Amino acid sequence: MAAALRAAGCVFAEDEAELILSAASAPDDIISMVERRAAGLPLELVVGWAEFRGRRIAVEPGVFVPRRRTEFLVEQALAQAPGATVVVDLCCGSGAVGAALAAGLGEVELHAADIDPAAVRCARRNVADLGGQVHTGDLFEALPAGLRGRVEVLAANVPYVPTDEIGLLPPEARDHEPRVALDGGADGLDVLRRVAAGAPGWLAPGGCLLVETSRRQAPAAVAAFTGAGLRTRLAVSEERHAHVVIGVGP
To answer: Under a CB-based contact definition with an 8 Å cutoff, are residues 234 and 213 in contact?
Structure first.
């Protein structure tokens, strides 16, 4: 099995083989899973889950796979608002960020939202045991009106790949993840700007907005936050190549 994965170009073939063995429910499943992985399906979609801050997050075909670098966003949110009780995970995908925040904060009112019905279905699986609610719709339009002015942590892992650069992504993302979860418009910041502009009306006094971006986009992202009236700073993890813009409401 490891030899087949190695021949297909899997760098960590032995580790992947162990994961497939542990995930297979029957011997016949192993062959099918190895074939799908060798054909280029992301390992997380083959085994049905991704690890994120020590939790197994269920993922399925057509849903964005949470990246380990996004754990930095969660860490920044927990440090910024350790006593938060109302949390929103916008552009939630699998719901990994919301689930990790709820697990880290304790008992919270958790809401997650995404425009993609497949993501919403997947997120519901991941936040159900935390009492989370998941909504379908375009950004803030998806949220219950009663959340206005109450959100203490608003995390939004928005799509931020420039449209013209999607073709340069690794095949695992380009070919197997939904374009709506990747495409951020001409400069990659279309959705980020919309979130920054709308956030102040939803944040509680002193509530915070956190969005992941890239090193190249960070100055423009910070400017968008500042322009929305948020007190803004940029947090960087060089080790994880992670850049998170943090904005605090008045």
So the answer is: no
